[in-house]
Amino acid sequence: HCGRLPLEIKAVPEGCLVPENNVMMTVENTDPKCAWLTNAVESLLTHVWYPSTVATLSHNVKGMIRRYLRKTGSDAGLNFMLHDFGYRGVSSDESAAIGGAAHLINFMGTDTLPAMLLLQDHYKVWDSDAYSDTFKDIAYSVPATEHSIMTSCGQEGEAQLVSQLIKDHPNGILSVVADSYDIYHFVSVIMGVYYKDRILARDGVFVVRPDSVTPTHTTPETQVLWIVNTLFSIFGGTTNDKGYTVINPKVRVLWGDGIDPEGIEKILALLETHKFAAENMACFGMGGGLLQKVNRDTQRFAFKCSYQERDGVGYDIWKQPLDKSKASKKGKMKLVLQEGSHANVLVTVPIEDPRQDFMRTVFLNGELGARYGLTQVRTNANEIYPPYENI
Q1: Residues 115-142: b if buried by 16+ CB within 10 A, e if exposed
Q2: Distance between CA atoms of residues 222 and 244, nearest Å
Q3: What pLDDT does residue 343 have?
Q4: For the residues 278-292, what does the mean pLDDT come to?
Q5: HEC sequence for the chain
Q6: How far is CA 353 from CA 21, 27, 335, 348, in A?
Q7: Has residue 127 got a pLDDT over 60?
Q8: Are 176 and 204 in contact (CB under 8 A)?
Q9: Cβ atoms within 10 Å of 301's Cβ, excluding its own
Q10: What is the mean pLDDT of residues 9-27?
Q11: Residue 339 has what pLDDT?
Q12: Rounded distance, CA 275 to CA 245, Å?
C-alpha cells in the first residue's frame, strides 16, 4: 500500500450536533489482510471525545446564556459571553490547543492562544473551499489585569494602579480584577468615588472582575448581585423594554473564578429575580471547568466492532451485557435526518436504509476527503439545534 493505511473513515461534518447514542464515525479496512487496522487506530481516533465534549459543554452554556439574554433583554453580545480562561488549567499545551479550539466553535473570546494557532494552521486553507492568505475572526480578547499587576504596589498603591490603567487605556474594554484586597472598597470607593468621572469619560467599558467570595457574600451569585446593585446606585442605568434594569454601559461585571455551567446559571437566575438584565455581565470566564473537568464518560464515547466479514459472509457483531446501558450497536450503519421531527435531529439507522447518509468519507486509503474550515464548522454548529434550545 506504499505506506498508506488501507482504511475508509466516514464521519459527521465537523460542528454538527449529534444526540447521544448515535454513530459519529465509522472505520472500515479496505484490505482483508489488514483487518486488524481498525482496532489499531481505535485509541488514536477515540480521542475525538475531548474536543467534541468541550464543544458540547460550550454549546450548552451558550444556549443557556441565550435564554437569559433574550428573556431579560437582547442577545447582541452572545458570542462573547463565555471566555476561555483554561490554558493554565489543562494537562498540556496540546490539550489547551485542541480544547480551546473546540470552544471557539461557539464563542469568540479566548485567552488560550494555542487554540488560535491550531485553527490557523489546520482550518485556514479550507474556508470557502478556496485558499486564502487571510484568516480573520478566529477570536478576541481585551486588556485585562491579574493579581500580579494589582498587587505590585501593595494595598496602598491599588488605587494609583487603577488610575494608570485608565490613563493607558482610554478606549475600549478594560477588565480589572478587583478582589486583591477589599472588593467592597474597590467598587464603592475606587470606582465609585475616586474615578467615577474618569470611568464615565472613557470611550469604552470598565469591567470589574471579582475573583473570590467573601464572608458577607459567600457565593458568586450573591457577590455579583451586590456589585451590580452598587454599580447601579453609583453610575445609574435604564429599564429596557422587557422591564429589566440595565446599568450604565460604561461599567460591566465579569465572573471568572471556579465557575461551571451551574454556577453561571445561578448568577443569571439571581440577577433575573432581582430584575437585572443578563447583559449587565460583560461575560463569564471558565478555565478548568471548560477544558479539563470532562472525560470520555461525560458523553459516553466508545469505539466498538459492529460488523465483520469472514469467507465472504457478513456478520453483525455487538455486545449485550447484563448492564443494558453498555450494549453496543450492531451491523453496518449510517446517520440520517430523522423524519417527522420538529427539530433537525440525527439518528442512526442500518446501512440498508434508503435515506442519505449524513456522514462523509474523510479518509480513504491514505487520502483525505472532506475537510472543513472554521467558518463552515461554526455554521454547522448553528444550523441544527436540539428541541430544548428552540426559543
Answers
A1: bbebbeeebbebbeeeeeeebeebbebb
A2: 18
A3: 59
A4: 96
A5: CCCCCCEEEEECCCCCCCCCCCCCEEEEECCHHHCCHHHHCHHHHHCCHHHHHHHHHHHHHHHHHHHHHHHHCCCCCHHHCEEECCHHHCCCHHHHHHHHHHHCCCCCEECCHHHHHHHHHHHCCCHHHCCCCCCCCCCECCCECCHHHHCCCCHHHHHHHHHHHHHHCCEEEEEEECCCCCHHHHHHHHHHHHCHHHHHHCEEEEEEECCCCCCCCCCHHHHHHHHHHHHHHHHCEEECCCCCEEECCCEEEEECCCCCHHHHHHHHHHHHHCCECHHHEEEEEECHHHHCCCCCCCCCCCCCCCEEEECCEEEECCCCCCCHHHCCCCCCEEEEECCCCCCCCEEEEECCCCCCCCCEEEEECCEECCCCCHHHHHHHHHHCCCHHHCC
A6: 18, 19, 10, 10
A7: no
A8: no
A9: 17
A10: 93
A11: 73
A12: 6
What is residue 137's predicted lDDT score, i.e. its pLDDT?
82
At 340 the pLDDT is: 64
Q: Is the pTM of this model over 0.90?
A: yes
In angstroms, rounded to a whole number, what is the distance separating the alpha carbons of residues 52 and 101? 10
Q: Cell triple for residue 259?
A: 465557575
Q: For 92-105, what is each residue's pLDDT tens digit?
A: 999 999 999 999 99
- Residue 356, Cα to own-chain centre: how many angstroms? 30
Longest CA span, the chain: 84
Q: Are strands 313-316 and 307-310 parallel, antiparallel or unpaired?
A: antiparallel
CA distance 114 to 92: 11
pLDDT (average), residues 313-329:
93
Residues across the chain: 391
* Candidate from 232-236, 287-291, 314-318, 336-340 with smallest mean pLDDT: 336-340
Q: What is the pLDDT of residue 389?
A: 42
Backbone angles phi, psi at 292, to 5 degrees: -120, -35
